[in-house]
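Notes from the pairing session

We agreed to fold both candidates in a single pass and log them together. This is the raw record for the first candidate, unedited. Please don't reformat it; downstream parsing expects exactly this layout.

Candidate A
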Amino acid sequence: QVQLVESGGGLVQAGGSLRLSCFASGGTFGIRAMGWFRQAPEKEREFVAAISWNGGNTNYAASVKGRFILSRDNTKNTVFLQMNSLKPEDTAVYYCARAMAFWASTPSSISEYDQWGQGTQVTVSS
């Protein structure tokens, strides 16, 4: 049974940076795309970014493109989301997720992911 554990969330001022990590225990991490989603209070969960199984391709939501960088280290079963130039509207619970299909590229739909972490809170103050 795979488990995804996020870390790195916290409180930061607008314009600051945070780095989220997601460690995957068990499962087939090295052949699965990984993604990040976020959910703000009273809003639906939304796609943030995804990275292909080998790290060769990334996909970002328009709202974070140019500010967030997603990377992975398959030797450590970990993905990293570097978040720069943070804005108050980035405030949300951030979830790491594992793509359902092997060898997927960069899926952006919630339905394409089958394993989720517990989430980590990111709060950006103005």
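Candidate B (folded immediately after A)
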Amino acid sequence: QVQLVESGGGSVQAGGSLRLSCAASGRTFSRDDMGWFRQAPGKELVFVATTTWRGGSTYSADYAMFIKGRFTIGRDGPNAVVLQINNLKPEVTAVYYCVAGPRPPTAATRLTYDYWGQGTQVTVSS
């Protein structure tokens, strides 16, 4: 049984940093994407970033257009992904979900990732 377990969320002041982590078990994702979506209060689920794993390092990172350099995604091995968020702002507040699986063919099909975690809450106060 595949499981994705997120950690690293919490409540922080604006201007701070957070590092979200996700660890996968049950199968290897060495040839697949791992990444993040988020859902803010009262809003729809949206893509944040994903990346693959090649040659022992992060490869082909893909970011949502609204990301303005404050987010960095990286693979911490074939079955782990991290999301570093710096200079936190209140609009970052959301539940962040880890995803894993083959990269969907288009941006419009990103919600079809095979595996999803339970989510970790990030709350940023001003």
